[in-house]
Write a structure and sequence with these properties.
single chain, about 290 residues, alpha+beta, 2 domains, 4-stranded antiparallel β-sheet, about 30% strand, elongated
Length: about 290
């Protein structure tokens, strides 16, 4: 069953709203009757509404065992949430959303996170799904919202409103499966070689060895953790050399629990990112042979 997460619904004469849908539900973003029901709580308090609906790989999981299939909705009383939503844009080959967030407590500069859109070709025939729509309140009772205009977009900035006392935190239950390695060679966003015990090796070498061992260890114990079973996501944390923060040691397979180590990483990774670190997705499930793209 789909989850609907609704937050920050404020009475206002005009408003904007962002709807994120997991990619399996992408066709619903084209269903005006369905969207009008989701937006119904705003109908009595706004005369007009601009909405951006986007399909992403999964929506935020708010509790253990919760589904990542569903909708997440956020609204704002002004148009600052979605700046330049109705301005003409230059299409991009990498459709995405860029979120501008308040800073960490240890890092005074604002943060930005780019979220690629999901490939929805098999869901609705579109390579991606991101639609801007304009709605207006109908007269009479009950008050509803009716669709006025729809336009496709390939990129949109999202400015999360925040005050001077607000800060960001990181919720990333990651488990380190290799030791921290020095980057030796690369080109652009392609990591080619790392240094392992004084030798230069392909960046993917350790992952190709460790990930099958991790999956085998999970199979032997019959424990897959608190998350969903299936393919695992592989990420790389890249951070400046010589920093005060040291990345946690690699997981000892079969000797300690993954979720305990994930909690350790989650408590400390915010300081790493605030200090200039980057988190890059490599792949889903075991990585392919060859170079690792970051």
């Amino acid at each position: 069953m789909a989850e609907v997460i609704i937050s920050a619904l404020s009475p206002t004469p005009s408003a904007t709203a962002l709807i994120l849908a997991s990619k399996g539900l992408a066709p619903w973003l084209q269903d005006a009757a369905f969207l009008s029901q989701i937006l119904a709580p705003l109908a009595s308090s706004t005369s007009s509404l601009s909405v951006l609906g986007a399909a992403v790989d999964s929506t935020p999981v708010t509790a253990p065992y919760a589904s990542s299939e569903g909708f997440s909705l956020f609204s704002s009383p002004t148009d600052t949430l979605l700046p330049k939503l109705w301005k003409e844009e230059v299409p991009t080959d990498h459709p995405s959303l860029t979120f501008h967030l308040p800073p960490f407590t240890t890092h005074p500069l604002p943060l930005s996170i780019t979220l690629p859109l999901a490939n929805t070709l098999f869901q609705n025939g579109r390579p991606h799904t991101m639609l801007a729509s304009r709605w207006r309140r109908t007269t009479g009772e009950p008050r509803n919202l009716e669709l006025v205009q729809v336009a496709e977009r390939t990129h949109q900035a999202v400015d999360i409103p925040f005050s001077n006392i607000m800060t960001s935190r990181v919720a990333l239950p990651l488990v380190p499966i290799t030791k921290a390695r020095k980057v030796a060679t690369g080109l652009g966003n392609i990591l080619r070689q790392v240094e392992v015990e004084g030798r230069l090796v392909p960046a993917s070498k350790e992952l190709e060895e460790v990930i099958p061992m991790l999956l085998e260890a999970r199979a032997k114990t019959g424990v897959r953790g608190k998350g969903k079973a299936g393919p695992i996501g592989v990420w790389a944390v890249v951070y400046p050399a010589g920093g005060a923060y040291r990345f946690p040691r690699a997981l000892e397979l079969g000797e300690e629990g993954e979720w305990e180590r994930a909690g350790e990483v989650e408590r400390g990774i915010g300081a790493l990112l605030a200090g200039g670190g980057h988190l890059r997705r490599i792949c889903e499930s075991p990585p392919p042979l060859g170079d690792v793209g970051l």
